[in-house]
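ingest -> validate -> predict -> emit
validate: passed (alphabet ok, no gaps, 442 aa)
predict: started
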Amino acid sequence: MKKILTIAGFDPSNGAGITKDIEIFQSKGIHGVSAPTCIVNQGPDGVSEVSPVPTGVFSEMLEVARGIDIDAMKIGVLFNEDYVHMVADFIKSWSRHIPVVLDTVFSSKNKKELLTEKGIEALKKNLLPLVSVVTPNIDETSLLTGNDIKDTNSMEDAAKAIFAFGAKSVVVKGGHIKAEPIDLLFDGKDMTRYTRSRLDKEIHGTGCVFSSLLTSYLCLGYPIKEAFHATEAQLNDLLDESYRITDGGYHYISSGILDSYKGERWEVIQALKQAAMILEMLNPIEFVPAVQMNMGFAIESARDVRDVAAFPGRISVHNEKIFIKGEPCFGSSSHVARLILGMMRHYPYLRSCANLRFDKTIIEKAKKIGMSVVFFDRQKEPEAIKEIEGKSLDFLSEHALLGIDGPPDIIYDVGDVGKEPMIRLFGKNPFEVIKKMEMMKP
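emit:
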């Protein structure tokens, strides 16, 4: 098992610092070891206070890491020159060469000081010559070089200047320049650039995540250019799935949440593929309505239609056989997705649904075998709701569930002008929906 030591601050909101580093390491199959330099009291609105860990305690934590025989090191918030010198001495005493990534964290987004002026000078003189890669942003690059960074040309000049301090490679992160964001890697020979689209939101911890991803790939044996590209690609995925933990303030990113999200989506698709095969064997053609059938399945953390998978071409009948058009995919059926999302707001474990042809005998059979059946009168639906695309399904879900004691198996209606009567059959997963369908067969 590979092991990485993170030396950084502790962020109680888990947007950056040692807890975020360890999360990133674990997502890459690497064990994380930590030695916090300080408590950075912060949340979605920024840093309010910074309290250093006693140097004696910090020194003891470094000795723990020495005994674990780590494979790489990532350095973040250092607070002041005392911690800079302690970390430099620790690296010098290490018995073998390992990747060391320095994220030069000098201040927070809301301009709270995280490394003193003396600390910055000590870092330039004592720490930069010892690291494999240093990853300053534009403001930090300006402080290190004493020059304003305004464009790509000045970024390149600054990267060369920082390289001259002794770091083996330099990544200048250009998210703060006015032009299109560009990150630049200089390895002493080549300039490698990566450009991304600018996001219209403030995201907490991007620099920390970048450096911990880069450390992870270097720890796994990637050459610096490959590690740089892999880090940028992974960061893009994380930025796309950023979220807020309060109503306002910074957005957050999480590799754990992203990995869980991807895993859930894969499991949902596999379940629907298996369900399709079972459905073809059962061949319940009597349940297919005129508008055709569909079956959906949502991930556990579903937030909108994009988190619900269904069959894009629906399910019809051809030559007296169930005919399933297309492979299941996410966002392919707003209709069934809205039904599932509406149910999940009340019963989050009911994540699957199929729409079936209305028939009184089917309803009677369902009641006879003990299913919970709920009727919804579509004629009571307000005209204003009917006129808005998709709102009818939201209204149906919410009002059909009012006043009932437990989760329904079925919500049905007898139609309205231009609306076919319909049965909606719910279950925890598509297999349970099909099992209920089988029980209801006339």
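The chain has a mean pLDDT of 92.
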